[in-house]
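Why do we bother with holo predictions? Because pocket geometry can differ from the apo form. Keep that in mind while you read this record for manganese (II) ion.
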Amino acid sequence: MKNIARKTLDEFIIERQEDFKYSTGELSRLLNSILLAARVVSYKVNKAGLVDILGAVGTTNVQGEDQKKLDVYANDVFIQTLVNREIVCGIASEENDNFITIQGLDEGHNNKYVVLMDPLDGSSNIEVNVSVGTIFSIYRRISPIGSPVTMEDFLQPGVNQVAAGYILYGTSTMIVYTTGRGVNGFTLNPAIGSFYLSHPDMRCSKNAKTYSINEGNYVHFPQGVKDYIKYCQEEKDERPYTARYIGSLVSDCHRNLITGGIYLYPSTHKAPKGKLRLLYECNPMAFITEQAGGSATDGRNRILELQPTELHQRTPFYCGSANMVEKLKDFIAQADEKETKK
Ligand code: AHG
Ligand code: MN
Ligand code: MN
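The structure, written out:
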């Protein structure tokens, strides 16, 4: 069997130190801390079914969603790892109402980065042994170093991201991340605990034929999205396209990143602002997708340019191969135009 793994992630980070241009090693240490937590969560996810980690805890998060045991476990592991290593000055998580301020033991609040995360994405897939993920987004703080973090450190537009990535706990565990100079993917060798560069310089294919949407909500979608779905299903040229929907943003976007495609989570009558969270789901996935040559929009605006006003803000989200996203935006603009003429 050919061994395609070229180098470890540690070697890659050292080799690409210029990616961390503002850094004194702080960002690479932060990425290493995230990887450590990812290995712990990966180990636990792989044992789900054998240990008592499946099922609900009986609590809900600030967004009213039921928390699963693995949601809470992953959240604790990532937070504890980052807190113990005093590597960031603040953390915001899907599972916590408010952001966490980290006080260094000796140096006060001297770290310059904040992390925002979805510790376990696609929780509803855990019970049925389908891929889940972790999403993270890293910003340089705005408030002065040495003081406690403030809300403005977290409410930054996605264009300010210093790094973003996801971990996919799938048939193998992978990390895919960007520091704004392309996207690279690494696969975990569980026997050794090292991540190896398996997907160098990932590019979102332009020759895309896959659309990913929870079509069960069709009747609740805006007209432009309904029109686009019908376009995808029409028998013409390269169409109909293929539909693929796992129900875990990380897994769906990862597939689309590799094979090309569009992921859609529109506003619905039930959720007029959409379901996905801007800060720790959409912005990091948008940054990665754009860095791979794709694009991400809320239907009208570039995701990365939206100015957040709340920590758990939601947004409609369309992300993937640039030509498919452009086509969708045309359908939405046409529907808007018809609406204003009425
Ligand atoms: P989370 O498990 O972090 O709450 O996220 C679930 C999200 C996302 O991963 C997925 O794409 C979407 O919810 C699926 O929603 P539907 O079940 O409504 O299709
Ligand atoms: Mn999620
Ligand atoms: Mn989650």
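The chain has a mean pLDDT of 92.
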